[in-house]
Amino acid sequence: MNRIKTLLIKEFSLDFRTKYPFYSLISYLLSLSYICYLSFQGTLSLETWNALWWIIVLVTTTTAIGKSFIQESDRSIYYYFLLRPSELLLSKLLYNLIYVVSLTGLCYLLMQLFFPQHIANPSAFTLNGALVSIGLAGAFTLISSISASTNSQSNMMSVLGFPVAIPVLLMGVTNSRKLIAGKALEDIQGSITSLVSVDVIIIALIFVLFPYSWKK
């Protein structure tokens, strides 16, 4: 746990020291939200609002997590002699999860600022957003770890990332659309259970496959 804590502190320290990735993502979110505002003149249907929200979340998540393991390529041999694969992986997964949840929440606030919408069931809506964030963080952490060991890292992120993220997004978009329309949590309980199952499968796959890419 001490090693994982140290790695987490290192990740946040690097972001705080450089500041450019964080500020560029904030600028990215503001630009996308404002472009949507100009395009739709401040009025959106619930379905369009929901779709745009998840599109912006997906794009910013890909940008944020894509660098996760790629930036560690120069330190891989150093880590190999100091850490277990599970320790490095868990620290990256926790860091990416915090990042994705923060970006999803910030994107929601910006969309509500430009296009105010009434959420009938905010607690269930938040739960669904958190579960999708976990799935996206896990999916792109897995793809980033695989891409870091290849020669075409950016291409691998694009080719492999979206097919893995699509099942999570499909369930998340469907759930949030129903919740915005006034459905209760009981009405989408089966879909929420499926979303939890997919998240568990993705995270399990990460821990199974990462040691092999690590050794490679």
Could you name the key traits of this structure?
216 residues, mainly alpha, 8 helices, 81% helix, globular
Describe this structure in words.
By secondary structure, this protein is mostly helical. Helix content is 81%, strand content 0%. The protein contains eight helices and no strands. The chain has helices spanning 2-18, 20-40, 46-65, 76-80, 85-114, 122-147, 153-180, 189-215. Helix 1 crosses helix 5, helix 3 runs antiparallel to helix 7 (153-180) and helix 7 packs antiparallel against helix 8. The longest helix has 30 residues, at 85-114. The protein is globular. The mean pLDDT is 78.
> Could you give the count of β-strands?
0
Radius of gyration: 18 Å
Percent helix, as a range, is: over 70%
Number of helices: 8
- Principal-axes geometry comes out as globular
* Average pLDDT metric: 78
| N→C terminal distance | 25 Å
**Which stretches are poorly predicted, pLDDT < 50 over at least 5 residues?**
none
Largest sheet: none
Structural class: mainly alpha
Order of helices and strands: HHHHHHHH
**Percent of sequence in beta strands:** under 5%
